[in-house]
Amino acid sequence: MKKLTLSIILLACTCLITWAQTSGNTPLDGVVKKLDQAKTVADYQSLEKTFVQIGNAAKTDWLPYYYAAFCNAKTGFLLQDDGEKIEPFSVKGEAQIKKSESLADKADKKALAEIYVVQSMIYRTKVFINPMTMGREFGTLSDQFLKKAQALDPENPRGMYVQAWTKFYTPKLWGGDKGLAKELAGKVSQQLSNVVFSTAPHWGKAESDALLK
């Protein structure tokens, strides 16, 4: 009887997993939909924990760790005026994005470009911690990873957004250009205006629209 009950449970679990895979109603699918609506530090940190859990269960998928790192990057950007709070998130984000890279197919240029964009953002959050002491090292790293991303996928809209953000907030004396920033942001916004939902990275429109205001 116990064996029969266990067999029924295993069969039910198998059917549930198969249904989730074929219907697209996967755990990652639901959490990415929530991510699309996230706005606050609390939102991003709650989702980050869920992405880590999914990643730990999936083991071989680069996307959950990518999204966990992205949540920590977004947290850092939201806290950029309160640098002393950022370090734990930047540390976690750096480890997560490196984990994501280790799982990605090294021949998949588009996936690697997405990863390097978020890695660029993570290093930018380290600049926010203390621009005077950390700006040169991590600002340079941030720029290097953005260039790596753009070399792999020049039309990646998220890479263009990060470039736009950097140009917008960098002083003109150091290479900032608000006009170019808005031009890039406008291109991203247009490119993502009819984006179809998937678990693949598709963020960037809301962020670019914010630069255009």
In short:
The protein has 213 residues and is mainly α.
Key features of this structure:
213 residues; mainly alpha; 10 helices; globular; signal
Can you offer a commentary on this structure?
Helices cover 76% and strands 0% of the residues. It has 213 residues and is mainly alpha-helical. The longest helix has 22 residues, at 2-23. The model is unreliable at 1-23 (pLDDT under 50). Keywords: Signal. Residues 1-20 form the signal peptide.
Tally the beta strands: 0
Q: Total helix count?
A: 10
Helix content: over 70%
Mean pLDDT: 91
Biggest sheet architecture: none
From the spread of the alpha carbons, the general shape counts as globular
Secondary-structure element order, N to C: HHHHHHHHHH
> Roughly what fraction of the amino acids lie in strands?
under 5%
Give the structural class. Answer: mainly alpha
Radius of gyration: 19 Å
Low-confidence stretches: 1-23
Gap from first CA to last CA: 66 Å
Keywords: Signal
Write the layout of secondary structure elements.
Elements: H1 2-23, H2 27-35, H3 41-58, H4 62-78, H5 87-103, H6 109-129, H7 131-152, H8 157-169, H9 178-191, H10 205-212
